[in-house]
Structure formats: structure tokens, C-alpha cells
Design a protein that fits this description.
It is a single chain. The protein has 219 residues and is an alpha/beta fold. 35% of the residues lie in helices and 12% in strands. Strand 3 (43-48) and strand 4 form a beta hairpin. The longest helix has 16 residues, at 116-131. The radius of gyration is 17 Å and the shape is globular.
Length: 219
């Protein structure tokens, strides 16, 4: 095992993503990869009364060559900030901790960010602060195809990849969810689901979602 990990940028990434921020001493956040749609870069999955709900941040179209993640601009199309905020309220207003975090969380949907990477990073840093994890996050200066002496989850943590096949170090620990009675437990949703349902105990869920071989290494 190494103490370094490479991660992609995510919009309120899944619980699996935050287990890496908890577990590794040094986190390299990739900003020189090519932006690809239908990934966690601009979407998160929360729980609604009807089951999983995908929220997508619209981005501006770029002409010509593929755009680097660091250069991707957020679009104002579709009043998405208002729609996302309303979706969080509808899903989590009855969760144990939503009211506690709501005022600070809402500012991310009233303030305009120009770049998706900056928006994701500030959200990530805020979430880490609330959960009380303190990763040493460093930003890449170029793209390294195969990092030395580091674990690489940049392409493995992906909404179309099954974590059970891609990540043996992640075993999701069940926790309370608002709609468990309707949907059963839904694993690996956005960290927002974990935070609003578990509050300060979110860190315990992250700890217990790491496979024992990883925990043994950390102890």
C-alpha cells in the first residue's frame, strides 16, 4: 500500500471517493485530464423518495480539441442552481442534520462559480471540514499517465463502474437513510447523503467502509 493517491475532481462525489480522502496521507487532485461527460466530474447521485436521483451541473460547450478539466466553465443553463437546491431540500429536509448544515451548504447554490474545478474543490473542502477529515490535497501541474508510488482512482471511481469490481478496498458500511423504508439501503450515494443523515458520525462510516486490509495498514 502507498500513502499517495490520485483522484479526479467530483461534484459532491460518492462515499467511496471520500474514503480515499480519509485514508490517504497525500491526495493529488487531477486537473489536467480531459473533461468527459457522464462522470462524477459534474454529477452526483442523491436519494429521493423515488430512488436514486442524478443531479448534473451543466457546462459550456468547447469548440475544437478536448477541454482540460481545469478549464471547464459552468453554464447558467436551466436555472440548475435553484433546481439542485430544491432537490436537496426535498430529499433531506427530514434528515437528522440537514437543518444544521443548510445555511452554509446553500451558499454554494447562490454564489456563481465560473469554473467547475473550483466549484468542486471548494465543495470538497467544505465537506471535509464538516466531517472532520483533513486530507493534504495537492493539485497536479500536468497529467501523469501512470503515477509512481501512488494508487490511482482517477478513472476507477465512475458512475458506470461497479465499485465491487474496481475497488476491493471499499466495502460500503450501511447507515441511516431517510427513505430506507421505501428504497432499502442505497450504497455509495453522494457524500451529501451521508453528511445530512449522519452528521458528525459520517467519519465513522468512512472508516468502517474501508476494507480491513486497508485499516490494518493505517493502524
Amino acid at each position: 500500500m502507498t500513502e499517495r493517491v490520485f483522484l479526479g475532481s467530483t461534484y459532491l462525489g460518492p462515499v467511496e471517493y471520500y474514503t480515499k480522502l480519509y485514508a490517504y496521507g497525500e491526495v493529488w487532485l487531477e486537473r489536467y485530464d480531459h473533461y468527459i461527460k457522464q462522470t462524477y466530474r459534474n454529477r452526483c447521485v442523491i436519494e429521493s423518495a423515488g430512488g436514486p436521483l442524478v443531479l448534473t451541473v451543466p457546462t459550456e460547450k468547447e469548440d475544437g480539441l478536448k477541454c482540460l478539466m481545469k478549464d471547464v466553465r459552468i453554464s447558467d443553463h436551466g436555472n440548475w442552481r435553484h433546481m439542485h437546491w430544491n432537490a436537496f431540500v426535498a430529499s433531506y429536509r427530514h434528515s437528522p442534520f440537514f437543518d444544521y448544515y443548510a445555511d452554509e451548504f446553500q451558499r454554494f447554490f447562490t454564489r456563481k462559480f465560473d469554473f467547475l474545478f473550483d466549484f468542486n474543490l471548494e465543495l470538497c473542502q467544505w465537506v471535509c471540514e464538516q466531517i472532520d477529515i483533513h486530507p493534504e490535497i495537492r493539485l497536479t501541474d500536468d497529467y501523469v499517465k501512470m503515477p509512481d508510488d501512488a494508487d490511482d482512482y482517477r478513472d476507477l471511481i465512475h458512475p458506470k463502474r461497479d465499485y465491487r469490481d474496481c475497488d476491493r478496498n471499499f466495502i460500503p458500511e450501511p447507515y441511516y437513510q431517510v427513505f430506507t423504508g421505501k428504497n432499502g439501503f442505497l450504497p455509495n450515494l453522494s457524500v451529501a447523503d451521508l453528511l445530512f443523515n449522519m452528521g458528525p458520525e459520517s467519519i465513522l462510516v468512512l472508516r468502517d467502509s474501508i476494507a480491513k486490509n486497508r485499516l490494518d495498514h493505517l493502524q
